[in-house]
Amino acid sequence: MPFVYIPTRFAPIIGVQATRTDSKGKYRIDDLSKIQKSKTRHPLIVAHANFASTRAEFDSVPAIVNVQLAAPAIVEGRIMDRVTGMPVPHALVSAQGVGEHGWFQTRSDEDGQYRLLMTADRYNIWAEKGDRMPIAVDSIAAVNGKTATGADIDMVEGAIVHGHYIDAQTGKPVESAGKLRVAHYGPARPRSGAAVTSTTLEQDGSFRIRVAPGKNYIYVMGAKSSTWIEVNDGQELELDLISGRAEQLAADRPAAKSTPKDPAFQPSRQRGNTPLSRLHDHLEEQNSNQDKFQEPWLRTLMQIVELGPAAVPELCDELDATQDNMMMRCMGFTLRAINDWRAVPALIRAIPKTLLPPGSDMGLIAEDKQLREFAHKFDLGQRDDAPFYSFARPVREVFGALHKLTNQQLNDEQLFHIFLDGTDTQRRMKQAMFNQQALAWEVWWETKADKHGVPEAFHVVGLPKLVLDAKAAALKPDARYKSDESHSNWILESMATKGAKRIAFDFDTGRVSPLPTPWHDLPPDEIPLQEVEQWATEQGFDLLGTQVHTQVGKTCYAIKILGMQAWELDKSRWKTSFSSITLEELIEEEGRPVENYLFHQGKNFVDHLATASFLVITREGTPGLIFLGIEVNDDSLQPGGISSGDDELNPVAFYKGRRFAFSYLRPVAE
Asked: The whole model's pTM is what?
């Protein structure tokens, strides 16, 4: 039976804030203190030998907390010390999802055996114990309801790499004072995942990092300085990293080998027997195994592109047929590379499908010079000399192809940070928005196609009929709500900033807009602020970036409310979430109505620079929480820079403005 307990620093004991469920799955913990209003959420753990450990939360006592257990995806293995030949007990074992970035941990038993119960994905798995380094498991598949065995991890002595970060101009070490870090990918942290090990550069620009034997990629985070190095176990090697120099492996390295064909793999659909169909079958298999994002996978993309314009009709058929995230990314990339106008209708038809659950753009590495040059030639990155190339989410790859083929944009960037999440109402709004954007492209294309010599068969887009999710019930203030996923590190620029790219924000959908074209190039003192505000309101935006004068005569960045109801909450609500609460409770017990701007406001004062937490309800009825952060006046952050701690308290960013985070509130029944 499941074991239900309140976690503490001690092992749980039945009867001490812990119990087991009965035969019907019901449980009751009745030795907790009564909590009328909790300032933080309290965890509840449900453990079962046959399911993944599941965490729930509550913010009051008494409370009813229902928990749904899911069949786990299990991976088993053993940790062995290669130096002593003995198993490694009590090692911390970590698993990071390659696709969805899930994170799970456990410890090995006395015999070095470990067992991870996880959600379905591919995982990189490594162990940590003392001064040993792991030879990690790379991209092992974990499938719901199944157990993958033999994921053994060898612990080795490792090698020490030490040296300095050198300024290429002066030849002297770069003084760091802890502002930069040196990191590594390699056998201990596979490149298929995002996890690295890192160390801080010392004041004198020196570093010292332990890596596993084999080929390792050593680099300075946030700087163009990297190299590949091959080391032996137990070796100590001196290495200097030079600013502006991104080195690669020697040209005579062994060719990358593709993963052997999986006899159990079956393509998602019958594609035929053409050369491109066979490449598509192979690409789909690579997308599902450890070749994904590696050189054999990139070589398949290159082989598809090398087929040239003759492949376009079949590539369009593939884009029309697939709903798969990876295949849509790949089709966008290859159609952009071939650069044939006939691809435009299929790319437009794909726009509604690019509304997907939250995901990430990728920064990938190609050691092979030919593959690296191919990737840089056609990726969406801005620098052909960067050590990484980009491989983006479907929405960016598909629109990137449209923009290159047509040299046309229809304010498509407003969709780039919108995901298929939120309440039913929000999902419907987002689906309608993506479909509306596709309709705008369809109208544009059908007036332009005949001017570009495109065969008549490709003149008509033929968008499929929009099918929306079920309509949600009306907002009920007395209904119980829970917090959805939080969204951090957002900034609104001021509409008074010339050329600002992020001035308006639609809370319902996550849509962001730049300063519109009529005013984009005007000097700041000539931008008609009232007209911009009217435009943002008419376009359905809820927040507008601006600037205001404070009581002390200074100007600060601010966020203006557009038709949105807002109540400031107690300061203790900063970055908290709810498992079950009504809007009435929040408003009546602690909500203080605010108007015009999101500022910390007392009875007789306004603190323009303070952080604050707000309950908000949009004109469309979407409830949520907004956490107002500090203003940013330092825009010196560079790509790859490190962000630590609370993003909303970080004074450095890519651009100036006011920071904020947010989360939606959804009905508990959803």
From this structure: 0.56
Cα–Cα distance, 44 to 67 (Å, whole number): 10
Helix axes 312-321, 275-287, angle to 10 degrees: 40
pLDDT band at 223 (very low <50, low <70, confident <90, very high): confident
Decide if pLDDT at 172 tops 70. yes
Map tokens 């993944």 to a residue: 52
Give CA 393 to chain center in angstroms: 10
- What Å distances lie between residue 39 and 97, 169, 403, 464, 572, CA to CA? 32, 54, 49, 48, 6
Query: Chain centroid to CA 456: how far?
Result: 41
| Coil, strand or helix at 132 | coil
**668: enclosing H helix or E strand:** none
**Phi-psi map region of 510: left, alpha, beta (phi>0 left; psi -120 to 50 alpha):** left
In this structure, the dihedral spanned by the alpha carbons of residues 448, 452, 456 and 457, taken in order and rounded to 10 degrees, is -90
- By the 10 Å C-beta count (0-12 exposed, 13-18 middle, 19+ buried), 467 is classed as exposed
Q: Specify the DSSP element, H or E, that contains 483.
A: strand 480-492
Residue 6 corresponds to which amino acid? I
DSSP letter for 13, please.
Answer: B
- Over residues 405-441, the pLDDT tens digits come to 999 988 888 888 888 877 777 888 889 899 999 999 9
Token representation of residue 201: 């550069």
pLDDT in tens, 634-657: 888 754 444 456 889 988 888 899
Identify the DSSP state of 414: G
Question: Which residue type does 457 have?
Answer: A
Q: And the tokens for 296? A: 């054999």
- What's the angle, vertex CA 647, arms to CA 642 and CA 653, rounded to 5? 60
Q: What is the identity of the amino acid at 551?
A: Q
Q: Is residue 162 within 8 Å of residue 209, measured between CB atoms?
A: yes
The kind and range of the H/E element at 447 are: helix 424-448
How close are the terminal C-alpha atoms of the chain, in Å? 26
What is the mean pLDDT of the segment spanning 322-333? 95
Residue 289 has pLDDT above 70, yes or no: yes
**What is the rounded distance in angstroms from the CA atom of residue 566 to the CA atom of residue 615?**
6
HEC secondary structure over 316-380: HHHHHHCCCHHHHHHHHHHHHHHCCHHHHHHHHHHHHHHCCCCCCCEEECCCCHHHHHHHHHHCC
For residues 251 and 231, the answer to whether their CB atoms sit within 8 Å is no
Q: Per the omega criterion (within 30 degrees of 0), is the bond before 213 cis? A: no
Contact status, residue 613 vs residue 629, Cβ threshold 8 Å: no
In the predicted structure, residue 176 carries a pLDDT above the cut 80: no
pLDDT higher than 70, residue 262: no
pLDDT for 102 = 67
Is 446 within 8 Å of 460 (Cβ atoms)?
yes
- Strands 657-667 and 480-492, how do they pair? antiparallel
Q: Flag whether pLDDT at 250 surpasses 50.
A: no
Q: What does the block give as tokens for 435?
A: 């479909």
pLDDT, tens digit (0-9, with 9 covering 90-100), for 92-139: 999 988 876 567 888 999 889 999 988 778 889 999 998 899 999 988
